[in-house]
Amino acid sequence: MGIPSEDVVLIQLPKDPSEPTVVTVNCPDKPGLGCDLCRTLLEFGLSITRADFSTDGRWCYIVFWLVPNVPNSCKIDWESLKNRLLSMCPSFLLPFVYFNYQQGGDGNGSSTHSSSVYLLKLCCLDRKGLLHDVTRILSDLEFSIQRVKVMTTPDGRVMDLFFITDGMELLHTQKRRDDTKEHLIAVLGSYCISFELQLAGPEYESLKALPSLPPAVEEELFTYELASKEASSKELKSDLMTLKKASVTVDNWLSPALTLLQIQCVDQKGLFYDILRTSKDFDFQIAHGRFSSSVKGYRNLDLFIREANGKKIVDPKHQNVLCSRLKEEMLHPFRVIIVNRGPDTELLVANPVESSGKGRPRVFYDVTLALKMLGAEIGRHSASDRQWEVYRFLLDDSHEFPLTSNGARNQLVDRVRRILMGW
């Protein structure tokens, strides 16, 4: 039967706006729950300043201390966040599905809306920052962007095709569609020429695959040794020297039943999500954990973990693979490069996809914020036995960033990376 919803997710707003909001989750455990919760917090534009969690494999108790990634950027809809977190808790999976069915199911007792992909067509007059403004509105309205196709015309018009899913699962209702149109037109104003919103058809499947990347570009984008190439840039050298200090230590002596992972690395946006995503992909269980506050730009994490079979991680080979992956996620959660494609210049941004198939939230939002320019594609690419989400931006030459200059290219890559990492 579960427990009362008011006790599953508790949100305590601070009296002082400078203080963090405290969110407590108290529910039955399930594999990957911590990762799913952190992904949703990241999707809502929130940063975890501290976290404590504990589970016995059947029940979990998690406390998050949260602040907006960008202070005063937008108002957080805490009630909507609570409902999203509730939907992930095992005690509320069935009631949540039943609610969706009441809103309009397929007649077979299941919802048809949770995974529905919609096509948003926007035709607008071009202007600086247009793509980011549309992305910001969609993010504020809790839409996830699955695929984007942007086309410009010689007469100064832009056709944006956004393939989106609805975090609120209400886009099948006329009210939700009308609200979406109203919010977009309120920001775009007279620049908006036309607006269409409909269920995506077969064209979505045909657009999902990216054009193949040249082998040299694929190697540069996905090979872990990318760090040594980036270090050649003067603008990035100081940051990378700091990043190289990240460490992961394995201790099997402190606890008779659990392996202790001690992690120290530079603070960055989505750090806790990246670590829990790795734990989910490697299928190891976190029994206890503490994510400490940032001290001089560094984070310390203590994780007591065990394998899925309940045993400690004692195999040295398994330990080395796990530590290497964690370091990779701390050093390079994103890959950012600029390449030439014929006469065109492209910015490529890639991030790993979860084993469940979910991409990282708000990447497109952050990159468009950094660029404030137009021309983009998003798709999936498999490399090195992993699936990656790749964002391709066609760049225009400008006085600020002349693309023939290596210094300007490095500066542009640095700007994008800093926003993605929250620096």
Descriptive tags:
repeat, alpha+beta, 14 helices, ACT domain-containing protein ACR, 16 strands, ACR1-12, four-stranded antiparallel beta sheet, eight-stranded antiparallel beta sheet, ACT-like_dom_sf, about 425 residues
In short:
With about 425 residues, this protein is α+β, with helices and mostly antiparallel strands. About 35% of the residues lie in helices and about 30% in strands.
Structural write-up:
Helix content is 35%, strand content 31%. With 423 residues, it is an alpha+beta fold. The strands form 3 sheets. Strands 1-2-4-3-11-12-10-9 form an 8-stranded antiparallel β-sheet. A 4-stranded antiparallel β-sheet has the order 6-7-5-8. Strand 6 (143-152) and strand 7 (157-166) form a beta hairpin. The longest helix has 16 residues, at 316-331. Keywords: Repeat. Binds amino acids. This is ACT domain-containing protein ACR. Residues 119-202 form the ACT domain.
The amount of helix comes to 25-40%
User: What does the main sheet amount to?
Assistant: 8 strands, antiparallel
Number of helices: 14
| Low-pLDDT ranges | 93-114, 225-237
Subunit organisation of the chains? single chain
Portion of residues in beta strands equals 25-35%
- How would you spell out the order of helices and strands? HEEHEEHHEHEEHEHHHHEEHEEHEEHEEH
**Radius of gyration based on Cα positions:** 22 Å
Strand adjacency order, main sheet:
1-2-4-3-11-12-10-9
Overall number of strands: 16
Structural class: alpha+beta
Query: Shape from CA axes?
Result: globular
Mean pLDDT: 81
Head-to-tail CA distance between termini = 44 Å
Protein name: ACT domain-containing protein ACR
Pfam families: ACR10_N (PF24914), ACT (PF01842), ACT_ACR9_3rd (PF24931), ACT_ACR9_C (PF24926)
Function: Binds amino acids.
Organism: Hibiscus sabdariffa
